[in-house]
Amino acid sequence: SQKIEQNSEALNIQEGKTATLTCNYTNYSPAYLQWYRQDPGRGPVFLLLIRENEKEKRKERLKVTFDTTLKQSLFHITASQPADSATYLCALAGNQAGTALIFGKGTTLSVSS
Amino acid sequence: KAGVTQTPRYLIKTRGQQVTLSCSPISGHRSVSWYQQTPGQGLQFLFEYFSETQRNKGNFPGRFSGRQFSNSRSEMNVSTLELGDSALYLCASSLQGDKSTDTQYFGPGTRLTVL
């Protein structure tokens, strides 16, 4: 069956460093991958989408890579700040209309000052 | 413009009861998806509605059902509640439900506790 693993439940880093979160998947060939941020008591907020034919996507301090050979996506936050502390979720989907998003369980990032 | 709203925000029920949760999407959005979030299983897809039709369904028992109205508002119903149904239920809306182009906007969720 399809499986998504975000290989760290928690990641602690110091302010100013780059946070790198990993999303691995098996038994699936997604057309695209999304990253979300979720704060306690709130719904997820969309951050970035990357398609299977794209290697890298950037948005301000965020960078996502997508390696379909390794079946892996990396999510980087550069110059991290305490305000970046949250749970980050990756989600995969296929190309068909109405396709469901399959979410990983998330990595909780804590940035200390 | 107003975001996705979900009512109620918190709900406590007992085993065997049924519950109805409501979701109002962002104005103009025709696709509504429902998810269940638990610490053990994470975010799991329940179903998606588009133009009042269920377009996709996740791997949940028939006790979980939903519908969408002509104004795109959606409800989900859980009958014969079990302890394991305790979770955060999230709905998300998007323009057409195309996950490759449309951003999904999530509501704050309904926290359901089954005693």
How many β-strands of chain A, per DSSP?
A: 11
Q: Estimate percent helicity of chain A.
A: under 10%
The tally of helices of chain B reads 0
**What is the C-alpha radius of gyration of chain A, as a whole number of Å?**
14 Å
Instruction: Look at the structure and give the mean pLDDT of chain A.
Output: 92
Tell me about the largest β-sheet of chain B: 7 strands, mixed
In terms of DSSP E residues, the strand content of chain B is over 45%
| Span of the ends, CA to CA of chain A | 41 Å
Give unreliable regions of chain B as ranges: none
Secondary structure tally: strands of chain B: 11
Oligomer: heterodimer
Characterize the structure shown.
The complex is a heterodimer of chains A (113) and B (115). Chain A is an all-beta fold and 113 residues long. Chain A is built from no helices and eleven strands. Chain B has strands spanning 5-7, 10-13, 19-24, 31-38, 42-50, 53-57, 64-68, 74-78, 87-94, 105-106, 110-114. In chain B, strands 2, 4, 5, 6, 9, 10 and 11 form a seven-stranded mixed beta sheet that branches. A four-stranded antiparallel beta sheet of chain B has the order 1-3-8-7, with no helix packed on it. In chain B, 37% of the residues are buried. The mean pLDDT of chain B is 94. The A-B interface holds A 31-32, 34, 41-46, 49, 51, 89, 91, 93, 95, 97-106 and B 4, 33, 35, 41-45, 48, 50, 55-56, 58, 90, 92, 97-100, 103-109.
Concise account of the structure shown:
The complex is a heterodimer of chains A (113) and B (115). With 113 residues, chain A is mainly beta.
Task: Supply the key terms.
heterodimer, A: 113 residues, mainly beta, 0% helix, B: mainly beta, 4-stranded antiparallel β-sheet, 11 strands
Q: What is the strand and helix layout of this fold?
A:
The complex is a heterodimer of chains A (113) and B (115).
Chain A: E1 3-5, E2 10-14, E3 19-26, E4 32-38, E5 45-51, E6 56-59, E7 62-67, E8 72-77, E9 86-93, E10 102-103, E11 107-112
Parallel strand pairs in A: 2-11
Antiparallel strand pairs in A: 1-3, 3-8, 4-5, 4-9, 6-7, 7-8, 9-10, 9-11
Chain B: E1 5-7, E2 10-13, E3 19-24, E4 31-38, E5 42-50, E6 53-57, E7 64-68, E8 74-78, E9 87-94, E10 105-106, E11 110-114
Parallel strand pairs in B: 2-11
Antiparallel strand pairs in B: 1-3, 3-8, 4-5, 4-9, 5-6, 7-8, 9-10, 9-11
